[in-house]
Prior knowledge:
InterPro entries: Plipid/glycerol_acylTrfase (IPR002123). It contains 13 helices and nine strands. It is an alpha/beta fold.
Amino acid sequence: AVVKQSSCFTGFIILMCVFSALEEWAGLGSIADYLSVLEYLLWVFTPLVIVFILPFLIVILIYLSILFLHVYKRKNQLREAYSNNLWDGARKTLATLWDGHGAIWHGYEIHGLEKIPDKGAALIVYYHGAIPVDYYYFLARVIIQKGRSCHSVADHFLFKIPGFKLLLEVFSVIHGPQEECVRALRSGHLLGISPGGVREALFSDETYPLLWGKRKGFAQVAIDAQVPVIPMFTQNVREGFRSLGTLRFFRWLYERFRLPAAPVYGGFPVKFRTFLGDPIPYDPNINAVELAEKVQLGVQSLIDSHQQIPGNILRALLERFPSKHKPQ
């Protein structure tokens, strides 16, 4: 018992020495002084934090109010959609929300929507941003203004994300076997695809290079389905979101494990303008390689015509403000 008491007393002495050393190192007389300093800092900075946060919350509430008005403005269309088909109503509701977000946050515009057929199939080929939020706005605008949905091809990893299954099913997203793509087009649907895919999303940059490699599967799909191809590009999409995929580690991670782990940053409220090029009609006399080159030239032409290189976030933000200059 004496030995046990002695060891406890020794442990207490050591603990007191540690506290004493911490106090000397921190330059405070006691732990109580340290807590008093923390309390003082909280007292000083809490009002400042509240002062800056409250206006931000007000702005969020204003934007939510605008978003609600966008939905309410189309209440009759939504009511009709829900009466016809439950999922049509859900699609139109989400399309209205996304269209409102695009209008509020990016002043989203689309030029050339008349090139999308009101009926019949077409393959839409687009440049892939770090996050393809512009493509979501495009899908929403097609649903609202054209009254039809557009099937989409997405990377396999999206289908592995928990909770995404229902969303992908409702919006007719497929993982891209050529046979399934051809089947969708032959059924008369629109189909959107980005040949650059995840690679372009992660490793392209503000100079907007197309990272398609020698991919020609999308062209073979168009030939097999005998449909036109419509090139598409969104101005400033790389200024809205950017990727750190140009860093060697993230590039190695993707090439070695096919893991798209490169961080994405941004969400800047820059101006987005989507441009649709002239449809490239079905031609039975050209092969997939020739059509792929033709489509790539079409997308590159849109980039050359409508995007200042290199992209600049500040310039893209300033484009949100009205100007006498016409959009490029």
